[in-house]
Amino acid sequence: MSRNLIIGSALSALFVALAVISFLWTPYDIETLDIPNKLQSPSALNLLGTDQFGRDILSMIMMGARTSIAVALLAVGIGMALGIPLGLLAAARHGSLLDELIMRGNDLVFAFPSLVIAILITAVFGASAVNAIIAIGIFNIPVFARLTRGAALPLWERDFILAARVCGKSATRISVEHILPNITNLMIVQGTIQFSLGILAEAALSYIGLGAQPPTASWGRMLADAQTLVSIAPHTALVPGFAILFMVLGLNLLGDGLRDWLDPRIRVART
Amino acid sequence: MIRYVLGRLTSLVISLFVASIVIFGVIEVIPGDPAAFMLGVNARPDTIAALRAEMGLDQPLITRYFDWVTGMLQGDFGQSWTYKTPVSELIADRIWVSLPLALYALILSTLIAFPAGIYAASRRGRAGDVTIMGATQLGVAIPNFWFAMILVLIFAINLRWFSAGGFPGWDDPAQALKSLTLPAIALALPQAAILARVMRSSLLDMLGEDFIRTARAKGLSRRKALWKHAVRNALIPVLTIIGLQFSFLLAGGIIIEQVFFLPGLGRLIFQSISARDLIVVESVVMLLVFTVIVVNFAVDMAYAAVDPRLRAKA
Amino acid sequence: MSLLAIENLSLQIGDTDILHDVGLSVTPGQIVAITGESGSGKSMTALSVMGLLPRGAKATGQIKLDGTDILQTAERDLCQMRGNAMGMVFQEPMTALNPVQTIGAQVAETILVHEKTTKADAYERAARMLERVGLKVAPTRYPHELSGGQRQRVVIAMAIALRPKLLIADEPTTALDVTTQARILDLLKDLVQDFDMGLLLITHDLAVVADIADKIVVMQKGRVVETGPTQDLLANMQHLYTKALFEASGHQVDLPDNTAVRTGSVQLLYAKHIVRDYALPRKSLLGSRPAFRALDDVSFHIDHGERVGLVGESGCGKSTLTRAILGLEDVQGGEIRLDGEPVFSAGSNLAVRRKMQVVFQDPYGSFNPRHRVDRLITEPFHLLENPPTGMARDTAISKALQDVGLSPDDAGKYIHEFSGGQRQRIAIARALIIAPELIIFDEAVSALDVSVRAQVLDLIADLCRKRPLAYLFISHDLSVVRTVTDRVMVMQAGQIVEQGATEEVFVNPQHPYTQTLIAAAPKLPELPYAVETI
Questions:
Q1: B138 φ, ψ (degrees, to nearest 5)
Q2: Is B82 exposed, middle or buried (0-12, 13-18, 19+ CB in 10 A)?
């Protein structure tokens, strides 16, 4: 167990815990405004201070954690559910028209600036958490498809796959029985990375107002609200930013730690 | 070699074609009635009709598509509904902010990342490597718009070295660059972190290769082997990443432009989306995608120039 | 005066002892061969001499090159010596060269690193050195344009460009074909004589050692077990391990006579006029696509119960033929039938497939690392209409494991818990579990150490005794094929150039290629007395 793994797990677990606890309890209710109490610095009453509407920032961070995790997790889910089968299919039918199409499709999606498209989708179809999930999820698909295909192709050359073919197994069967179990480690590690990228993307979308809408809390929007207050009440800008930073950092360290623990030879995509 | 170039060129044309269809489809077809969408729920029927006529929405899809494409090829991007000016003018103004910003950020990013990545790889596992890896971990985790806010807080508001935003135009190049500096740093640092990691891992891959051992057996010192053999080879895959980075910087400037009130393409897109000015959105997105595809093509060409194996292969 | 004198060399990497009290010497013009199996420490000894040990390696003792102790020399001075006073050639020619530099530049680099001369001069000398090593291509070529043998010549040119006093060659010909190997070894012999160099040759191939070395050093588990002038050592081996090693190398398998061959109207494997073309990338946009003919009108048959060998060098079409026989790829012409039925079909043809199985070369790549042994060896059950389940399945697994000399308890383990030889046994178990009519051994023993190889060959002979096996034994190693087959076929450039009874072909080869092949293969000398097997 490397240091990366321990710190990463701890940080990630912390935020997941905050999110889970928020379903049961938060220090204060974030839907009630308390203007007289606005912009308080961190104190015994409000551990992380209050924002411009008097809302307790710690409570908002906890609720925001829910949003970030839900959006990023589901987006990764979409990416894996569609991307991995596509990649397996492309590798099994390597050299065929289908493979070519899947690869070109991937390249095409990569050519579109993801942020612009995410903004477009959320603007055209309405700003909401669900649309944010779809927008971010769409860009996860080619990442997993390309990675899966890249990992599967050299496996198809290995003798144990030949042995399975000699035993009459079909390409689909081989993809599921032999290829998939051998790329699981890579997928877990990449999934963690995409999860962390999803957190950043959700924050960016919320920042420009296109993510989850009020009263749902979101770290990105907390930052947008704090932008004008940065000089008078810096904690309103610093706390949500650090939340994002530590969550993403935790996930990245977790991903690196997992990679070293599961199989040090894995190469992940990180663009 | 010719085959390679021709192949990539065909790819380029097909990609542009498909991209244009997708963009056209999403923008003009999906919202139902683009004109109604643009004018909003409260618009009067005759206003909608007028806009429809102006946008040529009564014509069949194919004609509209071809008009749009041929128009773009001639430099005519249509007329903005909100600004009532040709979109090409809007783009021309804005691009002189976004493009220099992206280039500036790219240069900064490369200048930081390359030495950092090479140094980290050469000191693998030791203090220098661990420090740099720690720094890059932070770098990739920082949301760049938040980093921008912090930079503004420290350097503009507290230290007053830079202004907090705005762009004075290119009449005074020094001032113009100064106003782009904080935004470029905000954009560059997270990218530099990614690039440094890629550089390091590419170099480590190279250092494990047999031909490095051969070089050492010839009498090259560790350092000479690193520079003359490993770095040169490691740069090749890193080239692709730089190409991708440029595209990302160009488009990703959107949010940074918001923070620093820069009149760039990003701001244009964002305002147009808010104003539902589909004509502008359509053209700017197409332009961005075009840039990305062309930059990728250029990177592929550079790849072939540098790696003789690609020149020979089909 | 010794050129190279190693005394009491001990090496530790981390906590592991790699070398223990190793000693040997090389004089100018002498070829000293270090031999032994994997893990014996041969390569580490070579790397110690060059001072190219990995980080964390602690070496004690003395390595004196012309009086200078390598272990006491600073890195900077070692850089001066490498490429200049001593040169090294490594095993893998395919990856030894920088892919983006011309070969001329890479050879010239050796010169430029050590001498203050102009680029033009260095390039000129490099070109001449490339000629000297017998390379007939321009120095402006890139490595990917050259074959393995050609690349190895470039590596040799780089190592000897400055006429070093000592040349170290670590398994320089292991990755090369028999005929190419012969030529490279001749080149090395020639250079040693011409330059009056000392050559420290590391190889596991005892036949090569017997052929070319003046002195032999036998290593086992990091120690020198025996050493002496070649002829003396071969005539009078002292150490048990040396004897075992030589016996295993020249191991003759006791193959039971083949009484079970059934000739008849339906042959087991029937191949007629097979043609297999691979499409090549287009040279021009118009015109037809060029094709590479991997199999050119190949015809042969194998009768039920027959044991046939297939020899050939890389690129001759062996692997293509194997895939065609296994029905994994379609052929463009001719037909292949197993027991009367075509082997290739668009749909699933389990009925045909269940009559043949295969044992592959790579014991490490032949198994899914995520599955346990019981699942691995029952993969062929997929071919049966009613595969055994429950108790019957467990019994089948236990029996299969015991047949190959392993224990039924091994069924619950993962493949990485086994050694190379054991994995090949498991591979054989997998091949036999559904009792196919034909087994294809595709270079099945080529990746194994000599002693392990002998054991696996003995296992095959044993299995033949229990139940008549028919197989196609493919190998580039002539001596192995000779001992384990009744009939042999020789392939060259996609054609079968000769076939016949094994002994006949070996003793009296007809085709010029067969003759070249047999002549090029280094021979282990007949040992003058009977050696006990361990």
A1: -65, -45
A2: middle
* Radius of gyration for the alpha carbons in chain C, expressed in angstroms and rounded: 26
E-strand ranges in C411-527 read 438-442, 470-475, 487-492, 495-501
C383 to chain A: which residues are within 8 Å by CB?
A: 167-168
d(CA C219, CA C34): 7
Strand stretches in C14-163, DSSP E: 16-26, 31-35, 57-65, 68-69, 86-89
Give per-residue burial for A100-114: e unless 16+ CB within 10 Å, then b: eebbebbebbbbbbb
CB under 8 Å to A246, separation ≥6 — which residues? A11, A14, A15, B141
Task: Please name the amino acid found at residue C361.
Answer: Q
Residue A220 with chain B: CB contacts under 8 Å? 143
User: Choosing among B214, B228, B238, which should be mutated to test the C contact, i.e. which has the most C CBs within 10 A?
Assistant: B214
Which has more pLDDT, B302 or A202?
A202
**Is residue A221 predicted with pLDDT exceeding 50?**
yes
Q: Is B312 on the interface with C (CB under 8 A)?
A: yes
Residue with tokens 């000739």: C263
Under the banding of pLDDT at 50, 70 and 90, the label for residue B270 is confident
Give the DSSP per-residue string, C333-375: EEEEEETTEES--SS--HHHHTTEEEE-S-TTTSS-TTSBHHH
- Listing DSSP states for C102-133 in one string gives -HHHHHHHHHHHHS---HHHHHHHHHHHHHHT
* Buried residues in C271-305 as b, exposed as e (16+ CB within 10 A): beebbbbeeeeeeeeeeeeeeebbbbebebebbbb
Instruction: Let me know if B195 is exposed, middle or buried by CB neighbors in 10 A (0-12, 13-18, 19+).
Output: buried
**Average pLDDT of chain C, as a whole number:** 90
Q: Which residues contact C460 (CB under 8 A, 6 or more apart)?
A: C253, C428, C441, C469, C484
Residue A33 has φ and ψ, to the nearest 5°, of -90, 150
Contact call for B210 and C92, based on CB within 8 A: yes
Query: In terms of residues, how long is chain B?
Result: 314
What b/e string do you get for C46-65 counting C-beta neighbours within 10 Å, with b at 16 or more? bbbbbbebeeebebebebbb
Contact yes or no for C133/C157 (Cβ under 8 A)? yes
**Residues of chain A contacting C348 with CB distance shorter than 8 Å:** 168, 170
Q: pLDDT at residue C251 above 50?
A: yes
What interface predicted TM-score (ipTM) does this complex get?
Answer: 0.84
Rounded to whole angstroms, how far apart are CA atoms C109 and C93?
18
CA C390 to chain centre: 41
pTM over cut 0.95: no
